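Title: Prediction job returns without error message
Component: structure pipeline
Severity: low
Priority: P3
Assignee: unassigned

Description:
Job completed but the reporter wants confirmation the result is attached to the right record. Sequence as submitted:
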Amino acid sequence: MKTPTLVLALALLTACSSPSGDANAPTSASHPETPAEWKASTTASASNESMPMPEMAPAATRASASGTVEAVDTAAKTITIAHGPIDALKWPAMTMTFKAPDVDLATLKQGDQVGFELTSTGMDGTITKIARK
C-alpha cells in the first residue's frame, strides 16, 4: 500500500523539479526568477496579446449656435433652447436641454433670442457662453 503512494509522490516531485536538478535555477530564459520579474514579464506579455481595447470617450467639440430660450432652470443650471442646425456638430435644428454650470442664467427667460457657445461630447452639450441677441 505504501509503495504506490511513494511511487506517485516520487513521480510528482520529478515532474515539478527543474531540468538541471537545481530547484533555485530558472528553467529557461523566459521564466523570471523573482516576483518583480514575473510581474514585469506577465504585464509585457499581456500587452502583446490581442485584447479588446476599451471604448474611448469621443473628444469634446466646440461649436456656436443661436436659438430661442424655451425654459431656464437656475437651480439645476440647465437651459432648454430651440436652436437651428449646428453644422460643426452635424446636429439638425432641434430643442434640447443643455447643462450650463459656469454660465449666469438668471437674466434669461423664455422667449429670449440667444447666441451661445458650447462644447459637446456625443449628444451632450454644455454651454460655455451665452448672450441675449
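Comment from assignee: result matches the submitted record. The mean pLDDT is 79.
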